[in-house]
């Protein structure tokens, strides 16, 4: 990395006190159980986050998004929630949570938390009540219970398969079956039930009252269902269009729920924000989740499944900016999160069947052969892609550890794995998601690389030492140093939401300008790209310029 010009970094755009702060925010995702462990039990906690607030402030992000920290048996990494209005005792208390929010706010960092409305855990008091109350009860109506098929009802109501693999129905002691789109421990709620609706409004108010600034809505497109008889078979289900009428996915009436939520969000000053995790079929359908009458913003996951390829990036960027215009929202950029193989690793692997998309999972499945992973190529490309994203209009969601250029961990034995997608043999991600959830390395030495005093709940490989925060903080050419500089500069770059493409004479080089004079050039190819006299305007690059020439697999930021 090279920083050619020194430059003042005064904020032109106040990202913190403005009701529209989220439109251009850099949001850092914390997976709390793997971030920092202050209590020394091997599991990250709220006090751990509090102890690293200076690190977050120095990084230069605008907000954090916390994956679930609620009481949970961890059947799905905390996405099986026992109580939506509490903190898991292993992670801390509500007082600890308040102290963390205050400390983040003092540093100008907003707080987004995860809401999991599609399902509770099977330990949630509602589900326990439903089991005890029996068929036909009001308690069962909060969930989706059905009689089985076959002469004695011993067969499930349908042959549907859960997202994590295996059957989507589970039988309870009195013979009825309940529906679970994910793990058995995650019974789906019945969103036709008014009590369910009311209770989530209470939860949103509970956290908003505590000063939470926004919400990330888990599988926002799955809440409402049409389970009227006769139920289709899984083969029939797969053929049904996802146009608002599909029995399980992206039904039109789900937006009635979010319109209600919006009235809660807007009753606060500034209004609370929300971002939908919605895997839907078209940009138009995604735009509905991002509407100002609904959640306001929706994740754009296109780059999670894209190759490191100029044409593909350009198409995705253009489509998503157009889609943002459609909804009136701003778009979101994501290269990594807690559900996918880290992007440094995806970009360091040889393409599979000509495509880079699924190779991360296949590589982990094969035991992570070292010979296949080009760590330096992965890092080069990851830095180039991230700097491109940070220069685009819209908000960028960063996943903890990517600022270190951290790679996926493949060295996890079946006994050490935790992800239900691994145990249930999910088709979409058969080897599970543990490899991107390994606790962060804070120092090259010491117990669990500085994560905590007594080990880490997922094994950290020896090579984590090379990516430790203390090592990278001391190295001006590290990925961490690059992120810190870029995130600071970004505040003067993100003063408007427009972009203008500048054509280059190369298919593998993308270039765009922002009206405020900033430009971003990304060289996706391996041949160097000559910036000519513009080299003088370069402010930051992911690889050092050589005589005004941008090396392959690199991004440069220029300021006129
Ligand atoms: C979302 C989460 C994922 C979780 C699933 C079920 O996709 O990102 O981690 O397993 O929902 O809650």
TrEMBL record:
Which chain positions lie within coiled-coil regions?
none
Q: InterPro entries, per this entry? A: GH, GH13_cat_dom, O16G_dom_2
| UniProt keyword Hydrolase present | yes
Q: Which GO terms describe its biological process?
A: maltose catabolic process; sucrose catabolic process
Q: Which Pfam families match?
A: Alpha-amylase
- Residues that span the membrane, as ranges: none
Per UniProt, the keywords (alphabetical) are: Glycoprotein, Hydrolase
Cite the Glycosyl hydrolase family 13 catalytic domain residue spans from the record: 29-437
User: Which SUPFAM superfamilies does this one have?
Assistant: (Trans)glycosidases (SSF51445)
Q: Under the GO molecular function aspect, what terms does this record hold? A: alpha-amylase activity; glucan 1,4-alpha-maltotriohydrolase activity; oligo-1,6-glucosidase activity; sucrose alpha-glucosidase activity
Please verify whether the record's keywords include Hydrolase: yes
Similarity comment: Belongs to the glycosyl hydrolase 13 family.
Q: Which PANTHER family match?
A: ALPHA-AMYLASE FAMILY MEMBER (PTHR10357), NEUTRAL AND BASIC AMINO ACID TRANSPORT PROTEIN RBAT (PTHR10357:SF179)
Spell out the protein name for this chain.
Answer: Glycoside hydrolase family 13 protein
């Amino acid at each position: 990395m090279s920083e050619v010009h020194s430059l003042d970094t005064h904020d032109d755009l106040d990202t913190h006190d403005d009701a529209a702060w989220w439109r251009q925010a850099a949001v850092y995702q914390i997976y709390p159980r793997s971030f920092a462990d202050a209590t020394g039990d091997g599991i990250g906690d709220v006090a751990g986050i509090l102890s690293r607030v200076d690190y977050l402030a120095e990084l230069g992000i605008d907000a954090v998004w916390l994956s679930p920290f609620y009481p949970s048996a961890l059947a799905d990494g905390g996405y099986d929630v026992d109580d939506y209005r509490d903190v898991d005792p292993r992670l801390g208390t509500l007082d600890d949570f308040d102290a963390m929010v205050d400390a983040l706010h003092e540093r100008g960092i907003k707080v987004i938390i995860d809401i999991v409305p599609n399902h509770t855990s099977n330990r949630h008091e509602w589900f326990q009540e439903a089991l005890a109350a029996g068929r036909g009860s009001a308690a069962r109506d909060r969930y989706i219970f059905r009689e089985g098929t076959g002469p004695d009802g011993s067969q499930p109501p349908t042959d549907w398969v859960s997202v994590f693999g295996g059957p989507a129905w589970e039988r309870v002691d009195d013979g009825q079956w309940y529906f679970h789109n994910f793990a058995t421990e995650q019974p789906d709620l019945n969103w036709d039930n008014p009590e369910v609706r009311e209770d989530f409004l209470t939860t949103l108010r509970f956290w908003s009252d505590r000063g939470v600034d926004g919400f990330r809505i888990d599988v926002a497109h799955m809440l409402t269902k049409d389970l009227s008889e006769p139920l289709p078979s899984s083969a029939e289900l797969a053929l049904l269009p996802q146009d608002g009428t599909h029995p399980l996915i992206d039904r039109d009436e789900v937006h009635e729920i979010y319109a209600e939520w919006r009235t809660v969000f807007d009753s606060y000053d500034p209004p609370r924000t929300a971002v939908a995790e919605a895997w839907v079929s078209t940009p138009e359908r995604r735009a509905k989740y991002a509407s100002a009458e609904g959640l306001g913003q929706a994740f754009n996951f296109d780059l999670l499944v894209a190759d490191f390829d100029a044409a593909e990036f350009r198409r995705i960027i253009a489509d998503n900016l157009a889609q943002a215009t459609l909804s009136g929202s701003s778009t979101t950029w994501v290269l990594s999160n807690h559900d996918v193989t880290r992007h440094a690793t995806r970009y360091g692997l040889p393409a599979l069947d000509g495509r880079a998309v699924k190779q991360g999972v296949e590589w982990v499945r094969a035991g992570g052969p070292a010979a296949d992973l080009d760590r330096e190529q992965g890092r080069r490309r990851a830095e180039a892609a991230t700097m491109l994203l940070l220069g685009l209009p819209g908000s960028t969601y960063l996943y903890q550890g990517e600022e270190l250029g951290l790679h996926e961990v493949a060295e996890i034995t079946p006994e050490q794995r935790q992800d239900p997608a691994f145990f249930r043999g999910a088709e979409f991600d058969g080897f599970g998601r543990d490899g991107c959830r390994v606790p962060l390395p804070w120092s090259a030495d010491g117990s669990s690389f500085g994560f905590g005093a007594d080990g880490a709940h997922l094994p950290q490989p020896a090579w984590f030492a090379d990516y430790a925060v203390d090592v990278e903080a001391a190295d001006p050419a590290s990925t961490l140093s690059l992120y810190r500089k870029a995130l600071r500069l970004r505040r003067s770059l993100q003063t408007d939401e427009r972009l203008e493409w500048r054509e280059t004479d190369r298919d593998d080089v993308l270039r765009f300008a922002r009206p405020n004079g900033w430009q971003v050039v990304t060289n996706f190819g391996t041949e160097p790209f000559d910036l000519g006299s513009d080299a003088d305007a370069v402010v930051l690059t992911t690889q050092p310029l050589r005589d005004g020439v941008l090396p392959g697999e690199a991004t440069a930021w220029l300021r006129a």
